[in-house]
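A quick aside before the break. I want you to see a complete sequence-to-structure record at least once, exactly as it would be stored in a machine-readable document. Don't worry about memorizing anything.
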Amino acid sequence: MKKAFIFLSVVCSSLIIIQCENNPIKQDKTPVSLAGTVEGGCNVDIKSTNAGQTDTALFNLNADTLNVFVGINYACCAPFTSSMDFRNDSIIITVRDACVVREECYCRCICYYTWDFKLTGFDITEYPYKIMLEGFLAKTNPECIQEGTVDIAAIYHVYE
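That is the input. The structure line, written in tokens, reads:
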């Protein structure tokens, strides 16, 4: 009887271990990372004004890179910095007006600034995202330019 109990205990323990290996603990999404940013529009050429163009966020895939194109209407001559954070499985892109003294930074016109954020390390799934603007001329600080969910699988299938 004792041998049968030990045998059953070993078999049950083995089954539990095998079952746990077949059902791994669900992990969060793979952290997305910023591979680079290409500035365009008024960031490069002040004559490149597309005033009237709406603030924009567009997503497309190029091989293993997710390109996030961001376009923002803002005062000409503004200095900008930009960043991408991955928090709580969400992509947060922030464009910051780097002006320190308001009176010394801006020209009297509106310009269309663009950035192409190149993201890598993503899973083929959905990611919530926010495009944020920080600075003197933001309506609120920070101002959410656009937010939503980008479905990488849907974009991926478009390119197949």
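Two observations worth writing down. Confidence is low (pLDDT under 50) at residues 2-27. The chain has two helices and eight strands. We'll return to this after the break.
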